[in-house]
Every structure is written in C-alpha cells, then in structure tokens.
Amino acid sequence: MPLAKADKLTLIAQHKTHDKDTGSPEVQVALLSKRIDALTEHFKAHSKDHSSRRGLVKLLNQRRRHLNYLKIHAFERYRALIEKLGLRK
C-alpha cells in the first residue's frame, strides 16, 4: 500500500533536515509511520488479512530499528521526533 506522491512530498518537507534530504532517519520514520497508520486502518475492516499483517510487522520492526539508531547516535533528535510524531516512549 504505497503512499501517494503528494503525501510523501509533504512528509519529506515536514521532517527534512536540509534541502535535498530524503533519507535521514527522521524522514524514513515519518514515512514508515504513515504507512503503518494506513495499514492499521486497513485491518479495522479486514481483520483476517494475514499476509498484510506480516508486512505490518516488517514495517514496525524497520521503524523500531531506525528509532534505535537515532536513540544511540542523536538522542535529542530522537526525542524531538518522538514528540513530533506522537509515538510512545
């Protein structure tokens, strides 16, 4: 379930650290969070879609790895991102 191009560009614009930034952990976590939210909504209507649930678990683990990287290497950026996205912890 890919994101629409306009949604993706707005997320990148909100979380980028410099002008040509598309790959920083902040941007990647924001994009993953948006996809996770979309899949969570999908499961409210399709509770028995187990193949998509596997994809959701993969996205959750990927986001967790990015957050762990930020937590170790740039704790202030980690705290700011958690607050901005409204994630737990």
Give a description of the structure.
The chain contains four helices and no strands. By secondary structure, it is mainly α. It is globular, with a radius of gyration of 14 Å. The mean pLDDT is 94.
Task: Put the structure in a nutshell.
By secondary structure, the chain is mostly helical.
How would you summarize the topology of this molecule?
Layout: H1 5-15, H2 25-45, H3 50-73, H4 75-85
Helix pairs in contact: 1-2, 2-3, 3-4
Order of secondary-structure elements: HHHH
Helix amount: over 70%
Low-pLDDT stretches are: none
**Strand composition percent:** under 5%
The N- to C-terminal Cα distance equals 27 Å
Spell out the key features of this protein.
0% strand, 89 residues, mainly alpha
